[in-house]
Amino acid sequence: MDAMVLVEGPKRAGKDLTREKFIAAVESIQEMKVGLGCKLILACGPADHKGFDNVDPTIVKERQPVPLTDWSGLAQ
Known about the structure:
This protein has helices at about 1-15, 20-25, and strands at about 30-35, 40, 60, 65.
């Protein structure tokens, strides 16, 4: 998710990127769908730099998010 924000910020900031423009651009991200289901919608703002209010353990199988409920098979 961090990489997605680092790519989206400069896109929104436009030419002649500055620190201030980057911060303003990231803070303008509201309800950005990141392709991992309806519970993972990215939203930032001047008082909210964390992006997600909650994060559920999720893995991606066949390009679809799947809630992680069984941790036993992950140590393989």
